[in-house]
Amino acid sequence: GLGALLCADLRLVGGGGRCAGRVEVKHEGEWGSVCSYDFDWDAHWATVVCRQLGCGTAATSSPYAPFGQGTGRIWLHIFFCRGQEETLQDCPHFGWGQHYCGHEQDVGVTCTGEPGQAGGLRLVEGSGPCAGKVEVKLRGQWGAVADDTWTMEDAEVICQQLGCGSATKAYIDGSRTGSDDGPVNVVLVNCRGHEKAFWECEVRGWGPYSALHDFDTGVVCQGFSRLVGGDGSCSGLLQVRQGRAWTSVCEDGVDLNAARVVCRELGCGSVLAVAGPGLFPMGSEPQWDTGFECTGTELLLSACKRRARSTQGCSGQASIICSSYGGFRLVNHSSHCAGRVEVMEGGTWGSLCASAWDLPDAHVLCHHLGCGSASSVPPGGSFGSGNGTLRVDAFGCSGTERVPSECPVVGLGDGCRSGGGAGAVCSGQCRAPASGGGVRAPGAAVGPVLCAPVSAVHPHGRGGGARTRSRALSPSLSPPGHLSLRLTGGSGRCRGHLELLHNGTWGRVCADGTSPATAAAACRQLGCGDGGSLGAAPAPLPAPAWLAWVRCPDGARSLWLCPSAPWRLQPCAPGGDAHVVCAEDGAEDALTPAPGSSCPHGGACTGSYGAEPCAGPAAMRVPVSPAPVSP
């Protein structure tokens, strides 16, 4: 049984938490205090107490009953400790029950560590922060709570301490039967249900123990917040728990940061709107009496600070609209940076129809997954179509959003007409698909490759490369060599706004998302030295913005070998034109081939491996405009 794990019992009582209070030990089934004369007293053995309880080191201690006098037995009279003992009972004492001091010398200790104030309680392996197995942090390590008589009273204290409302379920899960999955930090808990914190409950043993996980405990809480009255659980009027009842929140008590926390807590992705009154039917619940002051990063709304509301009355109830998408991923590939697009909705993963999926959508997804930028969008079904019905939502990403859930979404109706699931290949590390349909740099063998950026995909998909939904620039779109790139508006040709020639028109590069190394690459390509600085400055004359999010790596020698967002026709944001100052003025260089290319300054060949003339940015691609989508 779990009782066999307990070799010594020690606790601190009367201090408002388990890491501060009067020192008590348990002997022969009975708790009793510990006393000491002041001339015997040494702070070393207070450190033994704190270390044994997993509470850090001793902050303060006293042998003058600072937390009140005990009323029962005095079990130990300690007269010496070195400070290195494993347990308090290892320190020299007069024997169990033998003492020459009274309760007025009951020792009290305050330790530096209080798990309840340091995020020392959490729920894991559940559907969210308010459900799962209980873990407690001791001595810097998370471990399970084991109990063979786990009750709803125990679960209630856990849920209330975490700000998750009331408990709806208490369970014991012994599915982890090994002892290699972390320690058991707490065993045998007895809560009455009214305690303010788990540490105030009676605990038989504080570990860590190298024990089997046959009695790991878990809870399911009702949650602190919910959205009601909308279409599903991700939109509606905001309600929060007050005791065991739901209450509504006035609209002036919630801002965008609070809405972000609510959407995250409910697994509903990003916030789309903090809606005004009248959008959802009003409820008759009592009103929450304060507002919420959040940073936007909290896991639970209950973790936000409370603030006074700006008005006395309540003109309307707060309502929030979240994205229904709780997550995004790429599957059915050996790398997480390529594969079939899946989205989570309502707690279930499903594949996305390829009919309206394009390169800007893929770029946002790749950036969100930490996989760089999008290299290509393979044809529908290239990575399979998954199980079940394909979702037919159209993401209208511009390419600059942080996460796909920030993009406008339009439903396309029933049925997927494209014939397959949407896919994406990002510029992170990946492997070409077994069918030979992946991306490939010209001349590279099929196999493990560093996924090429958009610019390195062969323009015609030859030699095993994938055909994408984008088309490469032809020679008529840009003149050869470095003349398709320039810096204008500066004191010389090596400083100014970065411009590209496309379709006979010079356009700018937006500073938004463009890497500092891009400036150095442009300077090298122009023969203006080996470095440069990137800034953002408004240009004197309007011009289209051809590119944004140009992500040249360090050492790149040509813009044409750098990944970027798709070509765009709208101007940059005000003041957001890329401005470059090169390290040198530089003389005009001869047109010399870039490393690994027979074309000057990184230009790409438009035919089969150098059989035809060189073009400019052969791999910066113009997205094919999708067919109009009816709302």
UniProtKB/TrEMBL annotation:
Residues 460-482 are annotated as: Disordered. Disulfide bonds join C50-C111, C81-C91, C191-C201, C250-C314, C294-C304, C397-C407, C552-C562. It is found in: Cell membrane; Secreted. One of its GO terms (cellular component) is extracellular region. Keywords: Cell membrane, Disulfide bond, Glycoprotein, Membrane, Repeat, Secreted, Signal, Transmembrane, Transmembrane helix. SMART domains: SR (SM00202). InterPro entries: SRCR, SRCR-like_dom_sf. It is a single-pass type I membrane protein. Pfam families: SRCR. Residues 471-482 have a biased composition (Low complexity). Transmembrane segments: none annotated. This is Uncharacterized protein. It comes from Melopsittacus undulatus (Budgerigar).
